[in-house]
Design goal:
- The structure is a single chain.
- This protein is α/β, with parallel strands linked by helices and 661 residues long.
- 46% of the residues lie in helices and 14% in strands.
- α21 crosses α22 and α26 crosses α27.
Length: 661
């Protein structure tokens, strides 16, 4: 008989939609046990936290002077925000007819703006819930870290909390919080106190609080959008979908009957989208397209166009252009030998190319650390002191990737020389999260095994490679791991064509893209433009993210030599060269000849590694040494133990030009 397909899915998925996609297949539903949850919208309870009852309590002396002043200031701020909001919308007119006074309408009007959270009102609501006689924790859903931090600060500063009238244990649940602090959320609290958990949508499904009875839902979430034309990801706050807020409400009914307080109106709830956009529509598709081609499923446009939620054609086209730019496909969108190898690494194509190139140039180990770090959050603690440690450890290397490689190298050295105890002391001293470092180290080992099984460590049979062979392969492919400028070049080889020029205008340095747009480094980056001595180099980055402005993530100062060697295309242009059609460099004729020779040598090194032919031959060693010597010769762009990155002069390239002969 025909094979039976069984799709196992959570209750949050749209089963009807999946059933239609699979030719209206039958659906089996297993209902979960849920207690009743009362739903209250902001218009239902706003008078308890922002209206006459609050003012009357103050007038009757039922609160101290500090609380009275606190609430009076909050009401004033609310009125000002309401004047800026659309106070005369149809929704507010309808609420006014139900008897809401100006202060209450001001609170509702302010919360109608998706980009605004009234933290004062939220604090009052939490304290109002705390007066409920029922036991149980309060779970608050907020869109992101900024909102969680602000809510935590304002709630803890409230006079009722500071003076002990409200006995609250307030926790933050976010990836920026250390694993130890996250675990505190799940531990019992002292009797007579109430737990308040400020969380993102991670608590919708991934985390369960056994004692949760009250939910406060802001109705907001961070959403990622992707523009395939500019290849920019934008992260912003948006209204959550109905499916998400339904899931949030359900967290209050896990152990007993609960209450869900919604920080938005019933009308806003009705206008929410039914479901949020699938991830395929808001992320780059390079890895999906590469897998589609590797499996021989056919034309990417046709295959992905038949998906449950097909991505726009221009998004697929952008992914195919990127694959061609990195050499994974040819003009007809067929896999090249390089593309076939990248498929075997089962990761983002840029990172896969980075590891392949690093194994060809015998500096694999630090690049494995770079790839592992991309999969986990920042290992440094979320503390201002940790920012100082980060800068100190970077030693002006001007590369977020080199920093992570160095941190991981030091951690592994501690493990080898002193075991977990010494590694733990290292993490404590340098304000690193031990749990994250363990995870990154474990993933680095797995990535190393993946490289061996892909046949990228030549001389070792990937089918028979055991643990000992894997270690041997890693050593063999990491002979030059301490050549920091070579490691920097491998990072750039993987990130290009994602680059920006470092321009010096009026003594102020800035990063400018191909189209002239300016970008900024993300706040935790160790790239310090003011300490780059050359104003004519380039910076490579992993991706662009737009929030309040355009930021680049995972930056690495490349100078000029790595760009000239590993960019896709170099053309003669006047008194110099033009890389990838826009990165102009002034180079003499002798320097141009040297660059072209070294580019040819670098390509031969990678081609030999991909095809497994001629590795270890005399000509292969000459090519490798030529590229390494060219990178060793540059200095002065960055002053650090990691070395520099710019042309000293044209003759610094000429010594390696013999590799072209």
């Amino acid at each position: 008989g025909a094979d039976i397909k069984v799709v196992l899915m959570s209750a949050t998925m749209n089963s009807e939609k999946f059933s239609q996609f699979f030719a209206y297949c039958p659906v089996i539903t297993i209902p979960g046990r849920m207690f009743d949850v009362e739903e209250l919208y902001i218009e239902d309870y706003v008078s308890c936290v922002a209206g006459p009852q609050v003012q009357q309590a103050a007038a009757n002396g039922q609160m101290n002077g500090g609380v009275e002043a606190w609430r009076r200031d909050r009401l004033e701020r609310g009125r000002e925000r309401a004047r800026m909001a659309n106070e005369f919308s149809q929704e507010l007119i309808a609420l006014r007819s139900k008897g809401l006074d100006p202060d209450e309408l001001a609170a509702v009007a302010a919360m109608s703006d998706v980009n605004f959270v009234d933290y004062d009102l939220l604090a009052e609501l939490i304290l109002f819930i705390d007066r409920d006689e029922r036991d149980g924790s309060i779970l608050v859903f907020l869109p992101g870290w900024e909102e969680i931090s602000a809510s935590h600060e304002i709630l803890c500063a409230h006079p009722d909390v500071k003076e002990g009238m409200a006995k609250l244990c307030v926790f933050r649940l976010h990836s920026n919080v250390s694993p130890q602090e996250q675990q505190e959320v799940f531990r019992p609290i002292p009797k007579g106190q109430r737990k308040v958990v400020l969380s993102t949508n991670i608590a919708e499904t991934s985390v369960t609080l056994d004692d949760c009875v009250f939910v406060v839902d802001s109705g907001r979430a961070k959403r990622m959008t992707y523009d395939p034309v500019t290849q920019i990801s934008s992260l912003g706050t948006a209204w959550a979908a109905k499916a998400n807020v339904k899931q949030r409400r359900g967290r209050a009914g896990r152990v007993r009957a609960g209450v869900c307080y919604r920080l938005y109106t019933s009308a806003q709830h009705q206008s929410m989208e039914t479901e949020q956009e699938p991830e395929m529509l808001v992320v780059p598709l390079e890895q999906i397209c590469l897998s589609t081609l590797a499996l021989g499923l056919g034309n990417c446009q046709q295959v992905l166009g038949s998906a449950l939620d097909p991505p726009p054609a221009k998004q697929i086209d952008a992914a195919l252009r990127t694959l061609k730019d990195i050499g994974a496909t040819d003009d007809e969108h067929k896999l090249t030998p390089l593309g076939n190898k990248l498929c075997q690494l089962h990761m983002e194509p840029r990172l896969a190319k980075m590891l392949l190139t690093a194994s060809a140039f015998r500096c694999l180990r630090p690049l494995l650390a770079v790839a592992a770090a991309r999969e986990y959050r920042d290992p440094f603690m979320n503390d201002q002191r940790a920012d100082g440690v980060r800068v100190m450890m970077s030693d002006t290397c001007q590369s977020d990737q080199l920093l992570m490689a160095d941190v991981m190298g030091r951690y592994q050295e501690m493990i080898c020389t002193g075991g977990e105890g010494k590694a733990s002391a290292f993490c404590h001293e340098h304000m690193l999260q031990m749990g994250t470092m363990r995870q990154m180290n474990s993933l680095q080992v797995k990535l190393g095994d993946m490289v061996v099984k892909a046949g990228l460590c030549h001389g070792i049979d990937p089918k028979r490679a055991g643990r000992a062979a894997g270690v041997q392969a890693l050593v063999q492919c990491s002979e030059w791991e301490h050549e920091s400028e070579l490691v920097r070049a491998m990072i750039c080889a993987g990130l290009l064509p994602n680059a920006a020029r470092v321009c010096d205008k009026g003594g102020k340095k800035r990063m400018v893209l191909k189209d002239g747009g300016k970008i900024s480094a993300q706040s935790k980056s160790v790239l310090q433009l003011d300490r780059i001595m050359t104003g004519n180099g380039f910076v490579c980055f992993h991706e662009l993210i737009k929030t309040s402005q355009l930021f680049a993530s995972d930056l690495c100062y490349a100078g000029t030599v790595p760009v000239a060697i590993f960019c896709s295309k170099v053309e003669r242009c006047g008194e110099g060269i033009l890389c990838d059609g826009w990165m102009r460099m002034s180079v003499s004729n002798e320097g141009v000849a040297a660059i072209l020779a070294i580019r040819a040598a670098a390509k031969r090194c990678v081609d030999r590694h991909v095809c497994g032919v001629g590795i270890g031959s005399k000509s292969a060693e000459v090519d490798l040494e030529g590229v390494l010597n060219a990178l060793r010769s540059v200095s002065g762009g960055v002053s650090s133990r990691f070395g520099g990155d710019r042309y000293r002069d044209d003759s610094s390239m000429s010594s390696a030009s013999t590799v072209a002969q």
